[in-house]
């Protein structure tokens, strides 16, 4: 069992983490989710943050996992920003610099 002092803190990308080049085309599903989020954030009067839990409400486990993965892809590309207060807590999504 590890103690807190033995844990390794990641200080930057590892060699296995590859950030996609900016000119790489987006998958159709990723682009569809991006467009839906953009429409939401562009709608006057709508909240400028959205809960991933709310977006995944009613989805089966496989579709919720896919949505979570696509959220990470969009965050990696700086299309959205994600914030999580605590491990396993709600993930809040907001507009990124490249949306």
TrEMBL record:
Pfam families for the chain: Rad21_Rec8
GO-annotated cellular components: cohesin complex
UniProt record, GO biological process: sister chromatid cohesion
All copies of domain Rad21/Rec8-like protein C-terminal eukaryotic, residue ranges: 48-99
Gene3D superfamilies in alphabetical order: Structural maintenance of chromosome 1. Chain E
UniProt-listed PANTHER family: SCC1 / RAD21 FAMILY MEMBER, SISTER CHROMATID COHESION 1 PROTEIN 1
Protein name: Rad21/Rec8-like protein
Species whose genome carries this gene: Helianthus annuus (Common sunflower)
Taxonomic lineage from the root: Eukaryota, Viridiplantae, Streptophyta, Embryophyta, Tracheophyta
């Amino acid at each position: 069992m590890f103690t807190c002092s033995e844990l390794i803190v990641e200080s930057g990308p590892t060699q296995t983490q590859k950030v996609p080049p900016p000119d790489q085309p987006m998958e159709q599903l990723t682009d569809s989710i991006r467009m839906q989020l953009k429409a939401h954030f562009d709608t006057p009067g709508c909240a400028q943050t959205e809960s991933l839990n709310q977006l995944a409400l009613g989805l089966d486990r496989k579709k919720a996992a896919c949505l979570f993965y696509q959220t990470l892809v969009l965050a990696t590309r700086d299309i959205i920003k994600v914030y999580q207060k605590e491990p396993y807590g709600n993930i809040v999504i907001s507009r990124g610099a490249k949306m």
